[in-house]
Give the backbone structure.
Amino acid sequence: MDTLTFIVSLLYQYADTIAILVLSAIGLFIIFGMMGVINMAHGEMMMIGAYITSFSYYAGIPTPIAVIFGGLGAGVVGIVLERVIVRRFYGQLLASLVATWGISLILSQGALLVLGPLIKSVPTPFGSAGSDDLTFSYYRLFLFGVAILLIAGVWALFKVTRFGLRARATMQDPGSARALGVDVRQVYALTFGLGAALAGLAGGLFALTSTIGPFYGQNYTPQAFITVVVGGGAELISGLLLSVLSLGAIKTIVTNQVNILLGQVAMLVFALILIRLMPSGISDWVERRRLQSRRG
Amino acid sequence: MQQKHRSYRRWLGAGLALAIAAGFSSVVTGAVQAADDGPIKICVIDDASGDFAPAVIPKTMGAKLAVEEINKAGGINGRKIELIHYDGQSDPKRHQEFAQKCVLDDEANVVMAGYTSSEREAARAVAVENKTIFWHNNQGEGGIADKYSFFTGLIPEQQILPGVEYMIKKFGPRMYILAADYGFGQVSALWTHVAAGIYGGEIVGEEFIPLGNAEYAATIQNVQKAKPDFMVHFLVGANQGQFYPQALAAGLKIPAVSTVNLKQGYEHKRFPPPALEGLYVPVAFIEEIAQETEAAKKYVADMKAMFPDIAYVNSPSRCAYVAVYMMAMAWKKAGTTETDKVIAALESGLAFEAPEGRVFLDPATHHMTLHARMAQVQADHSIKFVHDFGPIEPWWLRKLGVNLVSKNDGKQYLPWDDPEFAKYKKQ
């Protein structure tokens, strides 16, 4: 096989890994980065998105709309959970962790009891292309595009819109924000709902390429958590980008050159080293460097 | 406010306890008695949750159907059979714990447990240590020679050897192995090397995939680069099954033979066609065997009548069904539930009309002579049986000189324990 094919193949795999990491982590990232809550029910938000997508698809709704329904449905569930349970645990990291873990257990086991161990997968759209040597799935490339659009969208939402301004103000100092007339409760609920909706959207998108069951989201949560921990909460977008680009590179190269198991191991080892060197994540480290150089 | 918080916490605590109870509980059917004239107890540890649940839930149903039929027909010498089911949660550790509960608390007469080889070994060790009869009701990597252990599924000489031989003749010698990275997958890959050695095949690639892995972009491209004539799949669990839709989406069009997929996890029912087109699976039983035999047609109908929600009447369901009937025959014949006498009855040459045809429990190896057929998945995911291997004996352990009637080996043999096969070991 020639060098060009090899490079194209590696780039395709890199894009694929990045897409999976971004999509599975972005909802968790927003909830952790903006609210300081570790949402253990993240995987179940993805599961809900996937279930709604599958049910909608088999009810005759076109695939893209089915996926969007998945995201919206998970967002609504997220807002309800925030209002009923999660809001009682702000500022208590461990308590919120246990509470969301409880939600996770109830939702996944509840889905198993009520809906059974599996539901039907949705066909993957778009088909494939390539040469005799290698073929590529258009849908996986499409996922990469969606991942980039989502990052851009989230950036714009928090930096450009009024909601973003209020959200950032609330996260910085809820007391002052409230004094200035921001409806803090609403901001919290919407932010949590947004995180859940993005998780649901990712769940719906992955549903087109995988098996769907009650524990579906748990395939993606470990890597989502690693991505968030490595990225850190200091700066949402740069944290997510740096984390995904570095983790994805390590995983892709080792998987491609050695095997899948060592690819996963290498990603974990890399995350461990990084956390040892930068305990609050890459984004925090970069942010401090930036401030230092500005002062210097 | 303080009061409200406290009551809230209590509520949350209760919710958590409930959730944990839902997650870790087991379902015990019927009352527990421990008298000789009480019911005979079959303890089943099957995954009702976790990665393997889709394949294993029908297995529990197969055991339940057999128990129901036998009890309706009057039970065993006047005694009823009681089925105790624990949810193994797709976790070997749970299998070990529940096996202890089965043997020590429930004093079960037989333990039937394990989907994967790691689950099986966790539970089997407990049963064997306590001299309790153990059944593994699934296809497997074979080689276990143990006085207390019995098997109802296909083993390598009944599926890997004939399956790979068929593929070499049909498609050519070059094969690429994709195997789950644990006991069963590793040993099955060794058997594939043996098959390649015997039938003139060549292994052009081999990948071991961690259980639970769900992303296959790299694997698919590795296969494409190696350009094999066919693939050999030992992909285990709902997550590894995701290989199929991803391979379809990526345009990977290479035929494959699998001893796991389709017959356990019914991927052809779960994934939209044509994801599994061109997959070949050597089977003893799958739901579509109803196209072949009247007994299978009746079995599938009975299963669906008793369990209208069943997703697919898969191979493990039939294995569990057969195992319960084999035990019933042995208990009747022995006239007691005393373990030694029941094992002697099991080793007396029992035969049974299984859904796919007559099966025979080999006294020397505790494995079964099974009728195997090659299933081929069509573009619309219907099944065509393209070859009939006929009944295949479990001959390999006998070739090694195993005879459990006279001597208890109490160990698992690997292909390299066979001096003739050792030469096919990869360098």
